[in-house]
Amino acid sequence: MDKRDLMVQDLSQLANIQVVPTLNGETHRPTGSVSIYVGGHQLVYNQESSPLPTPPKDAKAPFGLVEENGDPIDIHGGQLGGYLKASEQVQAYTDDLNTLTTTLIKAVNGQHAAGAGLDGTTGKPFFVGTDASNISLSQAIQSSTDAIAAATAPTPPATVAVGNGDNARAMAQIAQQALIGKNTLNQAYIGQVARVGADSKAAKTQASNQDSVVTQLQNQQSAVSGVSLDEELSKMIQYQRSYQAASRFITTIDDTLDRIINGLGK
After folding, report:
1. Are 83 and 54 in contact (CB under 8 A)?
2. What DSSP character marks residue 259?
3. If you compute the radius of gyration of the chain from its CA atoms, what whole number of angstroms results?
4. What is the rounded average pLDDT of the residues 220-236?
5. CB 46 within 8 A of CB 67
6. Hey, which bits of the chain come out as E strands?
7. pLDDT in tens, 199-225
8. How far apart are CA 65 and CA 44, in angstroms?
9. 3-state secondary structure of 22
10. Nearest-CA neighbor of 174 among 98, 128, 92, 115?
11. With 0-12 CB in 10 A as exposed, 13-18 as middle and 19+ as buried, what is 254?
12. Residue 80 CA to chain centroid, in angstroms?
């Protein structure tokens, strides 16, 4: 039972578990076995175990573990709960960054397509890709900087005037536009970085507070179930002295009876 309790304690560090003693159906007395649940899912019943379901490999956070019948499994504690919460936060950061990048791509490409490059071409994108995972310069610009549509597109048959940077100036002014809510791209990015820092600090503070709570609970548990060598030694001496006193009392009574019986008999 001690080994089992130790394993249950180790398991409790992984997730929010509930341990329920198994009762005899007739006598309603504990059988010695236990059932273990996590978020409503039965992990252990007598000698049988049922592992948690795993989300598909291509699942996107939040994963949301569910039973085969569709019932959700509420996991909110331990290392597993921490990993699930962290995955949700990281996914939120990724979504925000993708929104920022997609907005940047559309805004710059829209303005870039309105200009013309030194090679005389127009209507070409500056960026290719859809979000932060695949954004890149277009192949035309990577091949030649003359493809950068820095100039205002001329009216045919006129050609691009050397030094015309009107469209480049217009693309630079995109940084001053409120494209994400009331924020510019730079303000939105600064807000995202600040959010990561604030979440990190909050997580560290919460972890420190929880460590203190766990330490207090462990101390209370040790006070009830732990073994103190000094306390056991003092009890051993107390029992030894009690035994010696009882033995001395019996010896005295025996000696008294011997004197009464033998002395009166004479």
Report:
1. no
2. H
3. 38
4. 79
5. no
6. 17-23, 30-38, 41-45, 48-49, 115-116, 127-128, 136-137, 151-152
7. 999 999 998 998 899 889 888 877 777
8. 18
9. strand
10. 115
11. exposed
12. 7
Annotated domain spans of the chain: 1-52, 92-195
Residue 100 pLDDT more than 90? yes
Q: Cβ contacts of residue 49 below 8 Å, gap of 6+?
A: 43
| % residues pLDDT > 90 (the chain) | 44
CB count within 10 Å of CB 207 equals 10
Here the tokens at position 25 are 């159906």
Torsion sign (Cα): 141, 145, 149, 155: negative
Read off the pLDDT of residues 170-205 as tens digits, 9 standing for 90 and up.
Answer: 999 999 999 999 999 999 999 999 999 999 999 999
**pTM score > 0.85 for this model?**
no
How far is it, in rounded angstroms, from Cα 225 to Cα 219?
10
Helices 78-112 and 185-225: crossing angle in degrees, nearest 10, is: 180
Nearest to 161 by CA among 117, 197, 127: 117
User: How far, in Å, CA of 163 to CA of 154, rounded?
Assistant: 13
Look at residue 88 in the predicted model and tell me its pLDDT: 87
Q: Which H or E run contains 135?
A: none
Helix, strand, or coil here: 257?
Answer: helix
